[in-house]
Structures are given as structure tokens and as C-alpha cells.
Amino acid sequence: VSIIMPVYNAQAFCARTLKSLMAQTYRDIEIIAVNDGSTDGSRAICERLAQRDSRIRVLSGENVGASLARKKGLAFASGEYFMFCDADDLLVPEAVQTMVAAAEESAANIALFGYTGFLFHPKFPLFRWTPHYACFDRPGVHDGQDFIDQHFNSFFGWGTIPVGAPGYFYRRDFFDAVNPEFPAHSFGEDLCLNIQLLPKVGRVMVVPQPLYLYRLGGSSARFNPNYISDQAEIKQYQLRALQQQGARMKEYLFLYHLEAATALSAMGRMAFYYKTKDPTAVASLMREAFEVYTFLQEAQIYLAAHPERIETMRGQWGYERCRLFTAGDFEGIALLLQSEIAREHPLKPLMRKLRKWLR
Fold first, then answer.
1. In whole angstroms, how far apart are CA 225 and each of 183, 219, 270, 356?
2. Residues 237-279: tens digit of each pLDDT
């Protein structure tokens, strides 16, 4: 089993991460740490631990981003199976052993498993959260086509399965046969990888145990100026996957465009949290993005042409912002976001500041 870990300026965390990989109860592993142009002490830490454990291999190069660093690591991997681990996250000791047993038992090409998010320290967390996905209600092996028919909407924000790299265990020969493209953008790159793989998977194994510990407070703890441009790239991968659905494509088009409206609101919320408290300024940021990116304009046209679908959301979260987006009322969206933030639990602003500090 190969475990591929991209490393970029993670000197505060990467030693603990590597030690969690070294402590796996399944011993037949190789750990490939890809130093992605770090400017801190990350490379030295990885190399020091590699001297202690011959299963660790350290690769170094210029900064290309996590996705292409994973691709580089995979090129040097020799395992029959592989998985990814970020340099500030952890695996529970029995994670690899559990996944190998599940994959061997099921002959699955991909196995999904649960994860837990934490703040500060996994043993003494200030906050711990284990998301529940509907797929975990039916553990075991699944036919790939039935599985994707049931859960394809997860790639458009309706999370019944995990879609990110944490939670995936891949069979190497299947992965190479599909030969998916590794995206170069920095947000949602793992979704773009898995949306190419799951529709072709054949067999899927679902393991509900949370085997991966995900450190909260990364890129989501700041304003990301590339958020909408990354979303534009994600939409291209989603659209290609939709086109492969044939006659069923129309079933998902509403979700595809609705998620675009949600993305613009998410950018506005980030702006309120980390950039400005002025709703006029937030509305201006959203309007500027809308005028630049065609996927947002296409979403508005589609949603405006299907008011009956929007009405099915009445009373649900997101209905009002979708209605305002369709009307082009960015000031209204900003005021709605401001009102929602004002009603948040008083501890939430403190948690955001803590996450930003921990990052």
C-alpha cells in the first residue's frame, strides 16, 4: 500500500502526520512525502524521519500545488493500493489494515471510509466533528452503477457520500486504466479527480468507520481570491461527467446550476468573515465575479427559465438566496448573508478566529 502525502510549509504538523503513518498496524506500506517547494523546515523534518524508517521516501521539487504533487508521488508509488493523506492530517493506527481487508474481501476498485474533523489536537480537541453520509447506512460492497445512480448528486453539493480525497482507498490498476486528469487548481481538486473515477468504478466498498482525522482550519480559514475561478474549473469537470450520464443528464442540470448560485453566496460569506463587514462591498465583489464568469451567467439563465424547480425549494435552506441570484439582486444576497451571520451562535466568530490562528 502506498500512502502519498503532499507537503507544503507544514513544519508544525508533518512530523505528527508521518508518525501516524509509521504507526500503522499494517506494516507493508510505503510512504511517499512530496515536498512541494516548502520554504520552512518541512523538508528537513521529512528527511530526518526517512532516516529512521526506510519505508519513507522524500521527493522534492518546486511548488505546483497539492493535486500535481499527488500526481508526482503516484508516479513513484509501487503499491497495489494507494491513498492520499494531507500533511496536517492523521490516520488512526488500524486505518490501512481495515481498508486492505475491505478491498481484498470485496474486490472493489474503490473503498470509501469515514473521517473525523478536529481542532487543535486529536486527543484533546477543542472541537470534533464526524460527518455522517447516507452511504454509511449501507456498509459493504455495492455495484458501481447502482452506487453512482444513487449518489451522483453528491458531486453537486448534496453530500450522501464523501467526494474529497480523505475517505478514498484506490486500487492502482483500476486507477491507471481510467487514467484520470489531475486538476491544477487549488480548491475542490479531489472532487474533480473522484468525479472521473466513480462513474467507472465497477465495485465500491463502503466502510463507515472514521479512519482519517482531518485537521480543520486550512484554506477555509481565510478569504480565497481564487475561489470562483476554481469553481469555474470544477464546473468543467462536472459538466463532462454530466454529459457521460446520457439521458439522465437533465435530472442533474438543476443541481449543477443551483450549485453555481450557492458558490457565489459562499464567496460572499467568506468576504464577510475575512475581508469586509460592508454589505455594499460584498455585493460589489459578487457582481464583479458574475460579470466575469460565464458559468454564473449560464446558471442565472437556466434557473430563471425553471422557476417551478426553484419553488420546490420553498421553505428549505438556500431558497431565498437562489431566488435573489436569479433576479440578479446581489445587494439582496449580501443583506441576507449579513442577517444570517448576525444570527449565528456567539461562539462561531471565536471559532473562526481560532481556526485562522491554528492555520
1. 18, 11, 10, 16
2. 999 999 988 878 888 999 999 999 999 999 999 999 889 999 9
With contact defined as beta carbons under 8 Å apart, do 272 and 335 qualify?
no
Helices 294-304 and 319-326 cross at an angle (nearest 10°) of: 100
Band the pLDDT of 54: cuts 50, 70, 90: very high
C-alpha cell at 260: 453555481
Tell me the pairing of strands 203-215 and 140-143: antiparallel
Mean of all residue pLDDT scores within the chain? 90
Burial class (CB in 10 A: 0-12, 13-18, 19+), 273: buried
Distance CA 332, CA 317 (A): 16
Long-range CB contacts (within 8 A, 24+) of 194-197: 194/155, 194/163, 194/164, 194/165, 194/168, 195/155, 195/163, 195/237, 195/238, 195/241, 196/237, 196/241, 197/110, 197/170
CA-closest candidate to residue 92, choices 63, 71, 113, 109: 113
Nearest Cα residue to 99 out of 108, 90, 87:
108
- Give the pLDDT band (50/70/90) at residue 330: very high
Cell numbers found for residue 77: 508509488
Indicate the pLDDT class of residue 345, thresholds 50, 70 and 90.
low
